[in-house]
Design goal:
This protein is 12% helix and 63% strand. With 270 residues, it is mostly beta strands. Strand 6 (160-180) and strand 7 (187-207) form a beta hairpin.
Length: 270
Amino acid sequence: MQQRIALMAASALGIACFAQAAVAADLPVVPIAPVAPIVIGYNWSGYYVGANLGWSNARSNISWSPNALGFPDASAIASASNNRLTSNAAAGGIQTGGNWQWGSIVAGIEGDITFMSNNVQLSVAPLPPPAVGGTSLAETARLSWLATVRPRLGYAWDNWLFYATAGWAVGKVVFSDSVQSSAVSFLGASTTKTANGWTVGAGVEYGLVSGWSLKAEYLYTDLGTINGSMGPVTTSTAVINTSHTMVDQIARIGFNFRFGGEREVVVRYP
């Protein structure tokens, strides 16, 4: 009797399991929705070093103020000396700096030094009337290197960084002036100075992978006015005061390698 009851219970359990399996097989399969990735944008934070190569356009406005008591043709010399000397040269250098990013805002500071060979000379011989016959003059302006320290403020759009920059500039300038006239056989002077000034510019940078990025940048730099003098030689009144300005424009491309921060776009799943 007990064996019959156990057999009937086992049969009933088997039938129930079979029926449940049959019902489950008839139910539709519901696909599992994919989990959307979380994209972590490019992070510009970190310390970086890099190099650049570009073009330098240097411009110098020159004027002389001869002493009228020492030069009978002082006005003619002063007029002929008023010139703008412009030179173009290749430029290259290195830069280093750091960035801090908050959302889409990127702030930082950068220092760089650029070497160039801007050199231009102007000669006027002889000076036109009313200058005394045989009077001539020569002017030279050179810019050898330029260094800047600049805060940067920019807007990051993923791998792109657009920024403006401004700050302090210093550069080596050399000005040479000479005149030959009836008042003095020859009068000349050379002024070399490490001149201070300011700079302003803008640029764009594109982040690559593994910390590398490419950049394009424009800087306008004004090193101010450098004054000098020539003479006296034969008489105490044979003196010419000189004034020179130096403005430089640099357009360049370069690269940076950054340490720290996310170096590329990272995709993570929760």
